[in-house]
Amino acid sequence: MTKILNLEGTFNTRDIGGIKNKEGKTVKYGKMIRSDALGKLTDSDVKFLEDYGVKTVVDFRGIDEVIKAPDKKIGGVREINLSPNAPIAAVASGNIIDDQKKIDALLKEAATEDGRNSLRKRTDEMAEQMKELVNTEYANKQYTQFLNLLSDESNLGILHHCKGGKDRTGFGAMITLFALDVSEEEVKKDYMLTKKMMEFRNEKRMSEYRKYTDNDTVLEYLSGLMSTKEMYYDAAIKEMKRMAGSIDDYLEQYLHLTREKKQKIKENFLSEN
């Protein structure tokens, strides 16, 4: 089963090892960690990740997010930025420094009936963001590069993250597990585990938002962005199948996962039992 890594400076860090694929093979531990941002790692966290064998960190955040909250350095690690350009996810994962500006803009929108209706309709717009991670050419290029990294064993263990480790990171984990022939049901379980991992953090963030506003429409919109919902996962799956007919064909046609590359990834990640 998935191993939770209880670091002091993160809230959503876990090793995807232990997940079984449709052939009964198991993902090895120590090959891939998924996480939220690494800017608050403690010295003991850094040592833990060094000892755990992390060799590559892939940061899916945009350049503005990286500048505002750079990752802590992990010794001997190669750092790669592969931002898929996901503006909704960036808003969802904003920090306390940006809260006033963000909420002021939302309150301005919520001041009119049309604006309130718009926000209500967009409560679950993260589903649209997930679809864009699937269907935009720029995102396809970033996630293609990500899969390319997985096919080279020298890059492993690999840690990939965004701000909250939910959507941009979640999609990275999804395509990795699908490349390993893990079932849709098991991949969804991994995606939805983030809901439990982020429960305390989301409650804290909503308390912070309430310091700025008591506007129910704005608060509901912000809560929707932070939530981990099956419909977000389902939106990505549905879009893959719409575009290519099946998930395997999507990976091959849009993320250039050739049979040879897929076989190499499976050799790197899977054990026999």
Automatic annotation (TrEMBL):
The cross-references to Gene3D superfamilies, in alphabetical order and at most eight, read: Protein tyrosine phosphatase superfamily
Q: What family does the Swiss-Prot or TrEMBL record give for this protein?
A: Belongs to the protein-tyrosine phosphatase family.
Protein name as catalogued: Protein-tyrosine phosphatase
* Pfam family of the protein (one): Y_phosphatase3
